[in-house]
Design goal:
The structure holds 2 protein chains of 2 kinds. By secondary structure, chain A is an alpha+beta fold. Chain A has 4 domains: 68 residues, Arc Repressor Mutant, subunit A (Orthogonal Bundle), CATH 1.10.10.10; 37 residues, no CATH class; 72 residues, Roll (SH3 type barrels), CATH 2.30.30; 75 residues, Alpha-Beta Plaits, CATH 3.30.70. Chain A has 9 helices and 13 strands. A 5-stranded antiparallel β-sheet of chain A has the order 8-7-6-5-9. A 4-stranded antiparallel β-sheet of chain A has the order 11-12-10-13, with no helix packed on it. In chain A, helix 4 runs antiparallel to helix 5 and helix 8 crosses helix 9. By secondary structure, chain B is of the alpha+beta class. Classes of the chains: A alpha+beta, B alpha+beta. Strand 6 of chain A pairs parallel with strand 4 of chain B.
């Protein structure tokens, strides 16, 4: 919606109009600014659509025309007659609302008997009795990390890094907590490296408050699959067949490109051992394009395992 | 000619207010001057309008008329089905839902919230990236309506009574009664092939207290069409203890004097089996059945030869 370019498709405009009109009828009079903000439209877009709506209805009956006008930055709605209620929730909207509420019920710190649970019940009553279960793990440190993120509290943690196969101790100031691909992560100021780092919460083995409170700071949470947890790690470019596309779903990637009937995927390499196992699982149709040191890794690994079967 | 938005808005108003279903000719007559001139252009524009209404979720119903108009199609919008039911959310419930929607960052949820009268809120400290797949909403609706779904999977058509959806790690699964096999089966939603077809409502009953977590195979190697298939795998001493712990006592076939063990592992899902096997690298060897062992050897030979 933001960052949208070019003409808006009529379906988008209609979808929005059928929500805007009932809302306007209910409120009677609002500012143009408020409507623009709420419905994510520019003033020109809003005015254009409302002016069109004001020509809509079923002539010749005046009371069956949409009664809306705009004057001096304010929008006025007349007697509601048509479009008094929003269009029902579509299947994707219903699914997404339920999914949002269900996953929020499992977020660290959620009040499972509170307002959200009641809202979810009301939604489910309207949308039908399905059985959707969203599992999210609850790592031990999650509650403390979320609490620290909310008040910029500095933590002392012991963190296990599987790539380096070692434990480290450091102070971090958690900023945002997010769930992605089955794991909880925290974006934090890492006071050991002096940089912003992302940590997997289930790998925080010990965690305690230091008593230090830092300045609040806003950080962006990456969208799904656009990030990787350890950006200091090396990368490898793989060529995999179409059937190997799961690599891009399952592991952090730096780029994914269609390459003929397969994929060219740049993966973050947690360790050589990990890459070796991945290549064995992918089989003969996949290979490392670069770096050169790993081009023969798959063949070497296969020959090693094969010795068992001779 | 009118702006397409104006025409289609009027079309919604007309079909909601009409006392009886209207044919295409009647609609074009009522909306005089709003459809382009000429039969073909009119029909094309009307088809696009219908498609647009269905796309945004307007419940456009059609029926074939009898009597004097036999064979003609007439259209209506049932106001009761069009209008959003009032959820009567209390202010604190509304606020909690707003926060949940902001945390989940799903565009459809944000739009749905607008319909419910909620405001947009800025993203909270804790957010979740939920895997989104086009088939999920239709499967959820089919599950709520107790309607059969039909989809392609591994090249063949499956008919399923969808009991439940489960998000586990990064995948969505649909779990239900496979009608042709008369068994509860689990399918990964991102692997469904082709268009999903949804049947009539009230086609089945979901078992009371059905919980997808308990029927879902805890072991991905069990996912597949022959849940009974098992392989015998020899695990060398360095990894024996860890693997024995992972698989449990029931999987242990024998223990050898050198500390290695032989375990029984599901292998119906050969991809999942290989993934597991090669995760143990050179410390694991398939002993039986012969065709699984031969398959692993062929896989490795192809790789080793590709050097």
């Amino acid at each position: 919606m933001t960052g949208r370019r070019g003409p808006r498709p009529t379906s988008d405009r209609l979808r929005r109009l059928l929500v805007m009109l009932p809302w306007l009828m209910e409120h009677g009079e609002v500012t143009v600014d408020e409507m623009c903000d709420r419905f994510e439209l520019t003033e020109a877009e809003l005015v254009k659509d409302l002016e069109l709506a004001a020509m809509c209805g079923l002539p010749p009956f005046v009371d069956e025309m949409v009664d809306v006008f705009i004057d001096e930055g304010r929008v006025y709605a007349g007697v509601p007659r048509l479009f008094t209620r929003p269009l029902r929730l579509t299947a994707p909207e219903g699914f997404a609302l339920l999914a949002a509420a269900r996953v929020a019920m499992q977020l660290p710190g959620a009040d499972v008997d509170g307002a959200l649970a009641r809202a979810l019940q009301k939604l489910a009553a309207v949308l039908g009795d399905d059985a959707v279960v969203m599992e999210t793990p609850q790592p031990l440190a999650a509650a403390m990390v979320v609490d620290a993120a909310q008040r910029s509290a500095r933590l002392h943690i012991t963190y296990w890094s599987p790539a380096a196969d070692q434990r480290t101790e450091r102070d971090i100031t958690p900023r945002r907590v997010f769930f992605d691909g089955g794991y909880w992560y925290v974006i934090a100021d890492d006071h050991r490296s002096g940089e912003e780092r992302t940590f997997r919460i289930d790998r925080i083995e010990q965690c305690e408050l230091t008593g230090v409170i830092d300045e609040p700071r806003e950080v962006e949470v990456p969208r799904a699959d656009t990030w990787f947890a350890d950006d200091e790690l090396p990368a490898a470019v793989l060529r995999v067949p179409a059937s190997g596309g799961w690599v891009a779903e399952r592991y952090p990637t730096r780029s994914v490109q269609q390459d003929g009937d397969g994929w060219r995927i740049e993966v973050t390499v947690a360790s050589e051992r990990w890459l070796r196992d991945l290549l064995l699982r992918l089989g003969a149709e996949a290979h490392v394009v670069e770096p050169a040191e790993w081009v023969n890794l798959g063949a070497t690994a296969a020959a090693e395992v094969l010795r068992r079967y001779s | 000619m009118a702006d397409a938005l104006e025409r289609v808005t009027n079309l919604v108003a007309l079909l909601m207010e009409a006392r009886s279903p209207l044919t295409q000719d009647q609609i074009i007559h009522e909306l005089a001057g709003q459809y382009p001139a000429g039969d073909a252009a009119q029909r094309g524009a009307f088809e696009r309008d219908k498609a647009m209404l269905r796309e945004i979720g307007v419940p456009l119903e059609s029926e074939v008329l009898g009597g004097n108009d036999a064979g003609r199609t007439a259209y209506r919008i049932d106001r009761a089905r069009y209008e959003l039911a009032d959820l009567q959310l209390a202010p604190d419930e509304q606020a909690a839902l707003q926060l949940a929607v902001a945390a989940a960052r799903l565009a459809d949820a944000q739009f749905g919230l607008l319909k419910l009268g909620g405001d947009r809120s800025s993203a909270p400290v804790v957010v979740a990236n939920i895997p989104d797949l086009p088939a999920l909403p239709a499967i959820r609706e089919a599950s709520a309506a107790r309607a059969q779904v039909v989809f392609g999977y591994h090249g063949s058509l499956r008919r399923l009574y969808p009991y439940a959806l489960l998000l586990r790690e990064r995948y969505w699964y649909v779990i239900g009664l496979d009608v042709d096999r008369d068994e509860v089966r689990t399918y990964r939603v991102d692997r469904l092939e082709g268009e999903l077809a949804v049947g009539e409502a009230a086609a089945f009953e979901r078992p009371v207290d059905f919980d997808p977590r308990s029927t879902f195979p805890t072991d991905p190697k069990l996912l597949g069409d022959e849940p009974a298939a098992r392989a015998e795998v020899l695990i060398d001493e360095p990894r024996a203890a860890a693997i024995a712990l992972e698989l449990g006592d029931a999987a242990l076939i024998s223990q050898r004097p050198d500390g290695s063990i032989v375990v029984e592992v599901p292998c119906a899902n050969i991809d999942a089996f290989r993934s597991w096997l090669f995760g143990i690298g050179e410390y694991a060897e398939v002993l039986a059945p012969a065709e699984v062992r031969a398959g692993v050897v062929a896989w490795l030979q192809a790789m080793a030869g590709a050097r």
